[in-house]
Write a structure and sequence with these properties.
Elements (H helix, E strand, L loop, with lengths): L5 E11 L5 H6 L11 E8 L7 H15 L2 E3 L6 E4 L4 E6 L2 E6 L2 H12 L12 E2 L2 E6 L4 E5 L1 H10 L37 H20 L5 H10 L5 H16 L4
Antiparallel strand pairs: 1-2, 3-4, 4-5, 5-6, 7-8, 8-9
């Protein structure tokens, strides 16, 4: 989608010739364009990946294109679009469309409008949206959302070894001391974690925060607590992160 949008003004980038694959060098005769210091310069006309303003330009471009065909973004809900006259609506997240339609003619109108500018794939079964796996049961009027493959990959990347004990809660349960006048919290005078452990916990938070918001909000309170305490994390913080990972691993596949 980015490459279908033009920059307001062209920009320039330079590379060392040896950084460019040989096949590209030969295809464009780059030997003829190398300066004395070994650099090749190129002009960028389109919203290239990695360019900080590309996302905004591409978004404005697609909104303007949709408006030409009668699709307007909601004034209340960002990313929700409806048509001026047709009974169709969709949500747009970057370049991912989730479409609600009744008449095939309306769907075809949207697809034809987009194909005038963009190359795209259409999944009529709607098996996935913004990284979320969707299982539809129209008879029961039920939709099950999951991110099983994402979880497996994330746990592998975090090198998490699942505990033999099944964890049924995202955070450790601290039983109340019935009859006690004062409920003491766990010892907070613990040594602070080294930077590498703090970075690991931050990675856990980053990996699962979107999933918690989109699919399984039972994890949110545990992630929020980790985010609140990680900058001055102790061994208790690491234990809480491992407990959360054990919970996610145990409840990955419903």
């Amino acid at each position: 989608m980015y490459l279908a949008s033009k920059l307001r003004e062209p920009q320039y980038v330079c590379f060392k010739l040896h950084q460019i694959p040989k096949s590209i060098q030969e295809k464009y005769n780059l030997d003829n364009f190398v300066d004395k210091t070994g650099y090749v310069y190129a002009r960028i006309n389109r919203a290239l990946y990695g360019l900080k303003e590309s996302g905004r330009i591409a978004n404005e471009d697609i909104v303007d294109h949709l408006a030409l065909h009668g699709y307007r973004e909601s004034d209340i809900t960002v990313g929700l679009f409806t048509h001026e006259t047709r009974n169709i609506s969709f949500t747009l997240v970057v370049d991912d469309f989730g479409i609600k339609w009744i008449n095939k003619e309306d769907l075809d109108h949207l697809l034809n409008s987009l194909e005038k500018k963009y190359s795209m794939l259409v999944d009529m079964d709607a098996k996935q949206y913004v990284g979320i796996d969707l299982q539809w049961d129209y008879d029961k009027r039920e939709l099950i959302c999951s991110m099983d493959e994402y979880i497996d990959t994330a746990l592998l990347e975090l090198q998490h070894v699942q505990s033999k004990q099944i964890h049924h809660g995202p955070s450790k349960h601290i039983p109340p001391q019935y009859g006690a006048k004062v409920q003491y919290i766990e010892d907070v005078n613990l040594p602070q974690l080294p930077p590498k452990d703090i970075k690991y916990i931050q990675k856990v938070i980053g990996k699962f925060l979107f999933m918690a918001r989109a699919v399984d909000n039972t994890q949110l309170h545990a992630l929020n607590e980790l985010a609140r305490t990680v900058s001055k994390g102790t061994s208790a913080t690491m234990d809480a992160a491992i407990h959360l990972l054990n919970y996610i691993a145990a409840h990955n596949h419903p």
